[in-house]
Amino acid sequence: MSSQGQMMTQATPSRANLGLFKRNPPIAGEAEAIEAAQKGDAEAFAKLYNLHKRRVYTLCLRMLGNVSEAEDMTQNAFLHLFRKLGSFRGESAFSTWLHRLTVNLVLMQLRKKGLSLVSLEETVNPADDDTPKRDFGSQDQILAGSVDRVTLERAVAALPPGYRMVFVLHDVEGYEHNEIAVMLDCSTGNSKSQLHKARLRLRELLRNPSPPHMSVYPESEQ
Amino acid sequence: MTVQHHIDFDHLKPEEFEHILPDLFATGDGKVSQDPRLKKFLADNPDCAALVSDLEAIAETARSLFEPVAEPSDRVWQNIQAKLQEDSVLASIDDDYIDPDAPID
User: Fold this and answer.
1) What CATH architecture does domain A3-112 belong to?
2) Quick check: B72 and A74 in contact, CB under 8 A?
3) Alpha-carbon gap, residue A8 to A79, rounded angstroms
4) Is B84 in contact with A70 (Cβ distance < 8 A)?
5) pLDDT (tens digit, 9 = 90+) per residue, A27-75?
C-alpha cells in the first residue's frame, strides 16, 4: 500500500479520536454490517451507506462549500470505503475511521485543484489585509446567546476556504491542532492562529449576516 | 512551553492579551472566560471580555454542527451502485481471463 493509502486508512486512537469515539457511540447493527460488508455483502454495504451518508456528505459540504462537489466527494469516499473496508480493524469507531478517510480525500482533492502545499499555506495564511480586524467590539454588541446553528452554518459557508477548513476540522469535527498541522502540512502554531482568525471572521460575519434568502451552499462555487 | 509562561497576567495590556489569545484558547478546555489568571483583566477590560464571550459562543455552537444537517441526493447512491457493478464485472472478466500463450495440458 502506498504511504498515501496508509494515511487515508490509518486509525491511530489519538486523544482527539478518543474524543470522537465518545461523539460516535456504536450504532445498533453497525458491527454486523461491517463484518458482512467486509465479506462482500452488498446489502450490508448499503446499510453502512445509509447509516453514514448524511454525516459524510455534511462534512464534504462544509469543507468543499458546494453541493455538486460534495456529492461527488461523498460518492468517492464510499467507493474508497468499499475498497478499503477490509483494512478496518476496529481500533477506533468506524465513523471516526470513515471521517478520517473522507477528510484526507477532501484534502487530496483540494490539492489536486491547485492547493499545493505552498498555496494551501497561502490560503490558510491570507494576506495581512485579509486578516479579520481585531475588533474588540463593545458589550452591547455581544453575540453570546444569539448564535444558533443555522446562522453559524451560514457564516461558516461564507468563510474563505482556508479558514473554513481549519474551523471545521477543529471546532466541528474535533481534531486537535497537532493533527490538523499534519493534515494541512503546516505548523501547530499556524493551525492555532488560523483557527483564531477564522473565529474572528465568523464574529464579523455574524454581526453583519448576509440576507437570509441566500442559499447556505451554492450548487457550484467558482 | 507556551508564550503564556512569559506573561505577567497582573499587568496584562489589551495588545498583549490579543497576542496570546489564540494560545489561551488552544490550551486547557478553551474556556478563557473561566481562567482565574484573567479574572481581573477581563473585569477591567469589558471589550476584551466581550470578544472572549463571542468567540466562546462561536466555538460552543460549532460543536452542535457535528450532527449532520444535509442528505445527498439519490443520484449519489445510484452512481456508487453503478460503479461497484462496473468494478464487479471487470473483476469477473479478470477472473475468467485465460492466457492464450499458456501451455495446453
Assistant:
1) Orthogonal Bundle (1.10)
2) yes
3) 13
4) no
5) 888 999 999 999 989 999 999 999 999 999 999 999 988 899 999 999 9
ipTM over 0.90: no
DSSP-assigned letters across all residues of A150-202: HHHHHHHHTS-HHHHHHHIIIIIT---HHHHHHHHTS-HHHHHHHHHHHHHHH
Grid cell of A2 as nine digits: 502506498
Taking CB atoms and an 8 Å limit, are A147 and B21 in contact across chains? no
> pLDDT tens for residues A149-180?
888 998 999 998 889 999 999 999 999 999 99
Nearest Cα residue to A167 out of B48, B74, B22: B22
* Chain B residues in contact with A171 (beta carbon < 8 A): 58-59, 62-63
Polymer length in residues for chain A: 222
Q: Which of A20, A51, A141, A147 to mutate to test the interface with B (most CBs of B within 10 A)?
A: A147
Q: Is B5 on the interface with A (CB under 8 A)?
A: no
How confident is residue B4, by pLDDT bands cut at 50, 70 and 90?
low
A192/B22 Cβ within 8 A: yes
Residue A146 clears pLDDT 50, i.e. is over it: yes
Query: Which pLDDT value is given to residue A106?
Result: 93
Chain A: nearest CA to B98, how far in angstroms?
25
Contact A58 B14 (CB under 8 A): no
Domain boundaries, given as residue ranges, for chain A: 3-112, 117-132+140-207
Please tell me the pTM assigned to this model: 0.76
Question: Quick one: fold of A117-132+140-207?
Answer: Arc Repressor Mutant, subunit A (1.10.10)
